[in-house]
Amino acid sequence: MADYPTHILFSQHGLTDTNQTMRALAQRLAGSQMHVVAPDLGYVRTLWHIQPLLNTIEQAAHDAFCRYPEPPVRIVATSLGGVLWVELLSQHPEWWPRIESLVLLGAPIGGSDFARMVDPFGWGIGIAKHLGQNRRDLAEAIAAKIPTLVVAGHTTGGRDGTVPIEATKLNHAHFVCLEGVTHPQLRHHPKVVQTIQDFWTQPRSPLPPVTSRIMQLIDQFRRVPGMTDTSTRYFAQATPVCTVADGITLRTWRNPMGVDYLFIANAQGQCTYAGFVGWMHAAELRQAIQRVQVF
Question: How many angstroms separate the CA atoms of 196 and 201, rounded?
């Protein structure tokens, strides 16, 4: 068939948004050769429960797969949309052989620090309960099998104005940080279009995991209960606690609300990781730091 698509392209919007901008992005990326699917989750619906949003995308995917059972699939998803697709792909590993690539735009896969502040105990305050969850293990299992591109924006303080860069990073994924691009602009900025097109131009494979000493430390502290990736905003106010191998330093700072921040700096004194825990997990953070000091 002359009009049979070369690919299916899913383009998913995020929180408090509709599908218009992400559909326009998909059209710029796809031209007339791909079948574009851009589910509209509803501006208000994205504020509440995750399951109806997953159901909407799942049904759209099922319909597209039935209509076009052969073309490979590309996924481009921004912010909450990326979180939803990671959740959905983890539930449907049978889809993975069809997925040619996954592109995550400013998606807080490690958990949104804003959401954790809104709902620090995970009690269920709207979508914050779900956005605050760390889905890095799920996403990295996917990225180890499906070529994945993570695109982050950066304005100030190690974030795109909304999501910390650190919360978007994944082992096995290709990573691009676009200076001066804000979180909303990740849906339409020309730099984003070019970055995705460059990624698609040549075949990609999942990257091996990063095994440097500093990454091992970051992974270790990310597993402290309650640890949430955040921005580097308060790095200059932190106090050095100890120096470990290769000149890496651990620094801490407590804000007036009793929230404990951890910063990991390289030998040049540059912040390579920033995270925080609430008071209920402060003891676990102290214990993790003590374990590092022993070695």
Answer: 9
Q: How far apart are CA 159 and CA 152, in angstroms?
A: 8
Instruction: Check residue 140 and give its pLDDT.
Output: 97
Closest of 274, 200, 210 to residue 236, by C-alpha: 274
Per CATH, is 7-201 categorized as 3.30.1950.10?
Answer: no
Long-range contacts formed by 260-265: CB under 8 A, 24+ apart:
260/285, 261/230, 261/234, 262/221, 262/227, 262/289, 263/232, 263/234, 263/235, 263/238, 264/214, 264/217, 264/218, 264/221, 265/235
How wide is the angle at C-alpha 57 spanned by C-alphas 54 and 59, nearest 5°? 105
Mean pLDDT of 170-197: 97
The kind and range of the H/E element at 29 are helix 20-30
pLDDT at 144 over 80: yes
Q: Would you say the C-alpha torsion 192, 193, 194, 196 has a positive or negative sign?
A: positive
Average pLDDT in the chain? 92
**What is the Cα 33 distance to its own chain's centre?**
28
User: Residue 169 has which token pair?
Assistant: 């990073």
128 pLDDT above the threshold of 50: yes
Where exactly are the structural domains of the chain? 7-201, 213-294
Q: How far apart are CA 102 and CA 146, in angstroms?
A: 7
pTM, 2 dp: 0.92
Contacts 24+ apart (CB under 8 A), 286-290: 288/220, 288/221, 288/224, 289/241, 289/242, 289/250, 289/252, 289/262
Q: Which phi and psi (to 5°) does residue 220 adopt?
A: -65, -45
The neighbour count for residue 90, using CB atoms within 10 Å, is 14
Q: What angle do CA 227, 233, 234 make, to 5 degrees?
A: 75
Task: Look up residue 208 and give its two tokens.
Answer: 């091996």
